[in-house]
Each structure stands twice: as C-alpha cells, then as structure tokens.
Amino acid sequence: MFKKFFLAALVLNFSILYANAYQGLSARQLARVEAAQKMLGAADDRALSTTIDTIEKSPWNEGALEIFEAVAATYNELVRKYQLTDKKAQERLLDKVRMNMAYFQLGGQDVERSSGDNLNIVIRRLLKTHLSAQLRSDRRFFKSLD
Fold first, then answer.
1. What would the pLDDT profile of 43-60 be if each residue is shown by its tens digit?
2. What is the 3-state secondary structure (H, E, C) of 67-132?
3. HSE of 116 in the Cβ direction (CA atoms, 13 Å)?
C-alpha cells in the first residue's frame, strides 16, 4: 500500500514539475501565431505546428512571438508597398526581413545611425516600429556590442 501511495505521489510531483517547466502558448497567443503565419502566406512553407514549437522552445514565449509578428508585419507591409506577386521574390524578401531581424538581434547598428534608404535600412526601420522598446532591451533576444 505504501509503495502505491509513494509511486502515485512521485508521478503527481513529476507531472506538476513538468507542467511548470513547460509553458505552452495560450489560446490568444496561438491565434496571434496563426494570424502572423497567414501574413507570410506562401513565402513561408513551414507548418504552423513547426512555428508554434519553435516559439514554445524559446526562453520567453511572448518575446519570441512578438519577434515573429514583427517579421510578418514588416514583410506584409513591404509586399503591399512593392506589389510583389512572384513567389520567389516574396521568399527572397522574407529571407531579407529575417536576416535584418537577426542583424538587430546580434547587436547590429541601430537605424538612427544609418543613413540612406536602401532596402535593408527600410526593413530595419519597419522592424523597429513593430518591436517594443522593452523587447529590444531584453538581452535574451537582443545582444549589444556596446
């Protein structure tokens, strides 16, 4: 009897620890992921479940989701601005937006210090408008070279 009780208590404790360690996305966050994925359209061929898994594995789900939304919103604005209909051109643009987000995250020069209006600078300016100041200062996602 004692062994059964001990085993049941052990299983219960492990399930509670697992539930606390694994923070899945809320229904609201899942809806936001789906909406952002739709903005990317055919340019992103990853399954929605893959995107959700990637965000859930992040150190802070909300921050990773905000970054994903910023990439999607920036991409969407540029597709409309430049009226891109070619799938390959859309894929290249999405890659460029992602590369510029990585540039920011790895401590790249801020847009205030950048001059000109080539596509990379336009992308960085748009990305910055879609990211909160709190997230941009979070060292889990954005490194600084200063």
1. 999 999 999 999 999 989
2. HHHHHHHHHHHHHHHHCCCCHHHHHHHHHHHHHHHHHHHCCCCCHHHCCCCCHHHHHHHHHHHHCC
3. 5
Residue 62 tokens, joined: 């909300």
| pTM reported for the whole predicted model | 0.81
- By the 8 A CB rule, do 32 and 72 touch? no
Task: Tell me the average pLDDT across 67-92.
Answer: 97
Rg (CA), the chain: 20
- DSSP code per residue over 3-42: HHHHHHHHHHHHHHHHHHH--PPPHHHHHHHHHHHHHHGG
Q: Which two tokens stand for residue 143?
A: 């490194």
Query: Which pLDDT score, from 0 to 100, does residue 68 have?
Result: 98
Kindly tell me the sign of the dihedral angle through the C-alpha atoms of 126, 56, 92, 113.
positive
pLDDT tens, 95-127? 999 999 999 899 887 777 666 679 999 999 999
